[in-house]
Design brief:
The chain is of the alpha/beta class. It is built from ten helices and eight strands. Strands 1-2-3-4-5-6-7-8 form an eight-stranded parallel beta barrel, surrounded by five helices. Bound molecules: 6-hydroxyuridine-5'-phosphate. The site of 6-hydroxyuridine-5'-phosphate has 20 residues, from β2, β8 and α9.
């Protein structure tokens, strides 16, 4: 499975039961966490405990504070997301050590999916150097700019998971990121705002499968 559902909207936690077993995981955004609190997250997780649970706090602080934040999430999620631009020393190095100690996966943002993230792309090589040193479990790279996914994959190889947002509401199509080398596509509103979230998720998975077949087959001339 290659789909992580982004739960950001109030009440979207209700979709956990519907999508459990269909999606690989759930990414919990700050708005939802503020709504339901850690106890709400704990209850939701218990309803689908085999899924990959990712807390998307977009950590961007000194290492001490990022590590304290991650500690509050221990046992509630499998992974936390942090920004790559904060750098290594006294920042991601401390967070990475804390995640290792807790057995939590660390995901570092290499670049983002919105148009303003071109500023991130200007320092992509520097951010990738930081990521190489941190050795996180995963990296976020944008489905909206597949060339960035290819650069991340080329530079970091296959030992890192690439998670790609930007599908649907932000313009990329399901399968675009997978074809460029991503492992998971992160999808929010295309599923959570759909009248039939389960069917929307299944359609996305089917489209990913078709794209995977197409992009791996030799092109006809
Ligand atoms: P949507 O599919 O509704 O656009 O949601 C995308 C999700 O991915 C949101 O939770 C957002 O916070 C997250 N995200 C993103 O859109 N772009 C990034 O570069 C990094 C993200 O985490």
């Amino acid at each position: 499975m290659t789909l992580i559902v982004a739960l950001d909207k109030p009440q979207s936690l209700g979709l956990v039961d519907t999508l459990c077993g269909v999606a690989s995981g759930f990414k919990i955004g700050v708005p939802l966490l503020l709504d339901v609190g850690l106890e709400g997250l704990r209850r939701a997780r218990s309803r689908c405990s085999d899924a990959l649970w990712v807390a998307d706090m977009k950590l961007a602080d000194i290492g001490h504070v990022m590590a304290l934040t991650a500690r509050r999430l221990a046992g509630l999620v499998d992974a936390v997301i942090a920004h790559g631009f904060v750098g290594l020393e006294s920042a991601l190095d401390i967070l990475a050590e804390e995640c290792r100690r807790m057995g939590m996966k660390l995901v570092v943002i290499a670049s983002m999916s919105h148009p303003g993230s071109r500023i991130y792309d200007k320092v992509l090589e520097d951010v990738l150097e930081v990521i190489e040193a941190v050795k996180p479990w995963g990296v976020v790279a944008p489905a909206t700019r597949p060339n960035i996914i290819r650069r991340v994959r080329r530079r970091l190889g296959c030992s890192v998971a690439i998670l790609s947002p930007g599908i649907g509401a932000q313009g990329a199509s399901p399968g675009d990121a997978i074809c460029a080398g991503a492992d998971y596509e992160i999808v929010g509103r295309a599923i959570t705002s759909s009248e039939n979230p389960l069917q929307a998720a299944r359609n996305i998975l089917e489209q990913q499968r078709r794209c995977r077949r197409a992009c791996r087959e030799p092109q006809q001339t």
